[in-house]
Amino acid sequence: MEEIIVDETYKIHFSRELINLLKIKPKDRFDIDIKENKIVLKKRGKDSLIEMLESPAHADPAKIKQLNLKTLEEELWTT
Q1: Do 25 and 50 reside in the same domain of the chain?
Q2: How do residues 27-55 score in pLDDT, each as one tens digit?
Q3: Which helix or strand (DSSP H or E) is residue 69 part of?
Q4: Claim to verify: residue 19 and residue 1 sit in the same structural domain
């Protein structure tokens, strides 16, 4: 098990090995669960829209057709 230390600003920093193993990149998102005094982080997959915005030249036309813009709009207005 790897030790992670919380710094003075309450941030945690992952080791290079863990970053490489999980392919963590800046601005990656994680879901957090707390179970029996344990913190469990689960890496989220990227949203199709975010993926296309970050790399529009490589956007997959099939994924574009799958986007439900009405649902995305509702999510934006409710958050």
Answers
A1: no
A2: 888 889 998 989 998 888 766 566 666 66
A3: helix 69-78
A4: yes
Tokens at 57, concatenated: 């030249």
- Average pLDDT for residues 59-77, to the nearest whole number? 73
Residue 67 Cα distances to 30, 49, 54, 76, angstroms: 22, 8, 16, 14
Compute how many other C-beta atoms are within 10 angstroms of the C-beta atom of residue 37: 5
Partnered with residue 30 across adjacent β-strands are 43
Three-class SS of 25-56 = CCCCCEEEEEECCEEEEEECCCCHHHHHHHCH
Domain of 26, in residue numbers: 1-44
Helical (H) or strand (E) element with 76 = helix 69-78
The span from the CA of 43 to the CA of 23, in Å, is 10
Residues 14 and 51 in one domain: no
| Judgement on whether residues 28 and 55 belong to the same structural domain of the protein | no
